[in-house]
Amino acid sequence: MALRDFFISLSENETLSNTAQQYGLKLGAQNLVAGVTIPEVLKNIQELNANGISCTVDHLTNFVTDEVQATKAKNDILVMIDAIHAKEVDAHISVQPAQLGLDIDIDFCYDNLREIVAHAETYGIFVNINMADHQHLQKTFDMVEELTKSFTNVGTVIQAYFHRAKEDMEQFHDSRLRIVKGAYKESEEIAYQDQLDIDINFIELIESHLAHGQFTSIATHDHNMINHVKYFALENNIPKDKFEFQMFYGFRKDLQLELVRAGYKVCVYVPYGKDWYGYFMRQLAERPQNLNYVTKQVFNKKTNTVLAVAAGAFLLGRLTKRK
What we know:
The protein is of the alpha/beta class. Helix content is 53%, strand content 13%. The longest helix is centred in the N-terminal third of the chain and has 21 residues, at 67-87.
């Protein structure tokens, strides 16, 4: 828990984030972030597509505090949508409302979201509206509900650790949903604290949406969960084209390919952009096994990228102090 809190605190450090941008995707971040520029990320998407894997693309933007920054984030996403269409890659968009001004003005944020969804619709590209902590939950769901009145290419995320998750899923059962366990620190009044309770709710949500909802994106790296879903789908005659397994870029590549070979849909969450540092640190914090996965993957490199796993932030901190 102390290590988790340490990495979370680093992810929220704007000074370290700004410093990290000067060094590009060094210190191991290239294992988790697909690139800084659009050409870089498109190259990685094409490689994933060549292996039968689709992608959901997220432009990383942190510390958005004014409308100018939010507008720039929106325009960057619009450019990526154009690039996805022009290159004809198998990818859709994931959007964080906070990067589009959710903490500035909700109407302003909604207008930005609507422009993105409308632009993506012209190309037949799906847009997933990501979720954050409880403070932003209802505001985001309200915007998603409004968008679904006009567009069919939009969906959202259900976080299994919230007590309200089943009600939220029922509200959006006609939408494409990504089901996750949830990663933010929430109080026991609004979220399950025990991992077993979260796992049980996670499975129940998946089974319900598979049986009664639309397309389901199942976000997990846990092979036990994946095997459960495979068995449930088989027993209930749920076709493989009605769901997909989603994993983070850089995680469990062998399992991704194994699932593709077995005929299952696999989608990789592909983050990119200069603001990679906060995302990188959150991935080390949000799941203990993430730290293990990254450690295994960077220890066998010929570089010193292990610094990025356990002490990359410390190194960046020292670099900052030297300036």
